[in-house]
Amino acid sequence: MTYGNHDAASEITRRLRPPDNVTVLSHRSPETILLEDAGLAVHGQSYGKRAVTDDLALAYPDPVPGYLNVGVLHTCLDGRPGHEPYAPCRLDWLLNRGYAYWALGHVHARYEVERDGVWVVFPGNVQGRHARETGAKGATLVEYDGDRISSVEGRELDTVRWSLCEVDVSEAVSADDVQSAAVSAVDALTAHDPGRLFAVRLELKGATAAADELLRDRETWEAQLRADLAGARGRVWLEKVKLGVTPPHRAGVAGEEGEAIASVRETLSGLREDEAARAELASTLAALRSKLGGDMPRLTELGCPDLTEDCMTALLDDVEQLLLSQLQGG
Questions:
Q1: Is-contact 247 324, C-beta < 8 A?
Q2: Which end of the chain has fewer CB atoms surrounding its CB within 10 Å, N or C?
Q3: CA distances (Å), 134 to each of 124, 163, 200, 236, in order?
């Protein structure tokens, strides 16, 4: 095994003592372990520090003739979205190094490439840890004959599967319609795997006549939706509901909508254009968050946990939608 960025030699961690049949590869330079009974030559190098930005693979030893040569490497490969560029290397170089198999770590999503009998594989992690690690997770079973790979098979091992379920509710006219659409979508998502537990993040999208009701009575319909999914099915946990709906376009101008609605629009429009006013509002919200002693979940849901300029724009849009839904709902 090799240590990566989280358990590099320079990191102060509490490590379990590995069993006698486990060898931790050196962080000082690449080394080769020969497993003669198995006909394996395993090449690899651990991280000496957390942020390794050199291409470690360039120094890996030459393949050992007569053995199945396996490279073990913690790397971002050519670069993967959302991952730090640790130990970057080129795919073509790995495929032409003379090893039969590259066992890669760091990226938690499964990825594999095969060319002329040479495999480069990220097996991913065996269990998704949070809502961004969606889909099947597991390990890879590799079979070989002599110095050649004969089969590579992904095995699903996750106990709980994180899933993103996007539902277009444009046709809904009430919160009940939205709940029905959401339950049907989650049922379809989980139907193929009836024995598994699912953690689902639900995203409701679209311009819908139900938008005002959804915004006004969110706690009520969301509690009912959670009960419907958990009670009747027992294996679905609704991790979060992201509400991305908007009211359908309404004809008429602001002056015809009533004095209160026009005032809301005018006030928020003024805030969007007044940099000093936005800065004052951000300061007020920061002080409020400090007094509350924690984060404001709605900011996180909007994708802007910090009170930056972009966050204030998104927040003002969200506030306008909420206030208008209250006013227009009577």
A1: yes
A2: C
A3: 11, 5, 9, 14
